[in-house]
Design a protein that fits this description.
This protein is α+β, with helices and mostly antiparallel strands. It contains 14 helices and 13 strands. Helix 5 runs antiparallel to helix 6. The chain is globular. The N and C termini lie far apart (59 Å). The protein binds a DNA duplex through helix 4, helix 9, strand 9, strand 11 and strand 12.
DNA sequence: TCTGGGGTCCTAGGACCC
DNA sequence: TCTGGGGTCCTAGGACCC
């Protein structure tokens, strides 16, 4: 037991297994063993939405989350398709988070079904941390009757990648000494913040694995990716300093968007939908006692071309008419000539708590 | 086979002020 | 009258997360 040993952190990342479909299986025992897909209505292969989650039986048919629901239907028309009960999912999530909080004060939710725990103060070493991870899995099974996969590592990045390493119902521990060896063979896509686009750009540079990224010249990465290049390089070596924190950061924006069941040409239909989206945002703003100053609309055309237009108002406001007037004005810019419209959305940002001083700010 | 909806952060150019 | 540079805000778009 040395001083340097005490200085290192030990982080857990907990990731519920195929969360939505697992809850559906739990609620409907008859679903067990059958492919279950949570997402949009497949409409016999004509549906427009996507798969949100599916269980492992559905994955055996090649179905993945994010896939279009009609593609999923084509791969497995006999699967059980459900729209999902998000109120229930949120309730289950709350129970999960309450359970996890009992293991450490340093706790950070990451979406509905994932969380980080900094257990450095709760355990002496990785062996202890492994025992604790087993207790976490046990407690979650007891409280919500669902399985999860846990990653244990010296920081959030490594813990997150580790939790993804063995699924479902997995437990992967990566100690400080093992970090670089663990990361090196993994494809860059496994890295947090490296998505499909960045993966493609890295491939053009001959970089496929995290090990390739780690051994790459930093200057070359900076030239290609700017400040992010330096970060990618550090992360590839397993260096990630972001702390586990549940600092309740002020919300930055609030919005709604809707894809039409079929593409729309009639602008009145679009404007009516826009008004409805504004009403929902307005209700949320009033309920949360928030004022906003910037309004942004989004329009996606039938060919998926998308534009956004925004404007910052003169005053902070939470009045519905201000929102609807601004949104209508902004959206008209994109509707000069008739085109097929797939989606319309509104978002407010530049938020401030109202604290009894509405419409005062210059 | 087309591609949801809720968000956050970053970049880059232009306007404007000192 | 011309010129530079730093800082901040606004806008549009892109990439990423679950």
């Amino acid at each position: 037991m040395t001083a340097s040993c005490k200085a290192t952190r030990i982080i857990l990342h907990v990731d519920m297994d195929h969360f939505f479909s697992a809850i559906e299986e739990r609620e409907h025992p008859a679903f067990k063993g059958q492919p279950v897909v949570v997402g949009a209505d497949p409409k016999e292969g004509q549906g427009r939405g996507v798969v949100k989650t599916c269980n492992y039986e559905a994955r055996a048919f090649g179905i993945r989350s994010g896939m279009s629901i009609s593609e999923a239907w084509r791969r497995c028309p006999t699967a059980i398709y459900v729209r999902g009960d998000y109120r229930l999912y949120k309730d289950v999530s709350a129970t999960i988070m309450r359970t996890l909080m009992t293991f450490s004060e340093k706790f950070q939710p990451w979406g509905l079904d994932e969380a980080f725990l900094d257990v450095s103060s709760e355990v002496r070493d990785y062996a202890d941390a492994t025992d604790l991870a087993v207790s976490v899995k046990h407690d979650l099974l007891w409280h919500v009757n669902l399985t999860c996969s846990v990653g244990v590592g010296p920081n959030k990045l490594v813990a997150k990648i580790a939790s993804d390493f063995q699924k479902p119902d997995g437990l992967t521990v990566v100690t400080d000494d093992e970090v670089e060896r663990f990361l090196a063979p993994l494809p860059v896509r496994r890295m947090l913040w490296i998505g499909a686009k960045t993966e493609r750009k890295l491939k053009e540079l001959g970089i496929r694995t995290i090990g390739d990224l780690a051994s790459c010249d930093v200057a070359a990465l900076v030239e290609r990716f700017g400040v992010m290049g330096r970060r990618y390089h550090r992360w590839a070596h397993g260096v990630y300093t972001s702390a586990v924190g549940h600092r309740r950061r002020m919300r930055r924006s609030m919005g709604h968007e809707r894809t039409f069941a079929t593409d729309i040409v009639d602008r009145d239909v679009v404007l009516t939908r826009l008004d409805g989206l504004c009403e929902r945002i307005h209700q949320r703003a009033v309920k949360r006692r928030m004022l906003f100053k910037t309004v942004t609309v989004k329009v996606r055309f039938g060919n998926f071309q998308t534009f956004t237009h925004g404007k910052t108002l003169r005053l902070f406001t939470n009045r519905l008419t201000d929102l609807q007037t601004a949104a209508r004005e902004l959206v008209q810019r994109g509707l000069k000539e008739p085109r097929r419209i797939r989606l319309v959305g509104v978002r407010v940002s530049n938020l401030r708590s109202d604290q009894g001083q509405a419409n005062l700010d210059p």
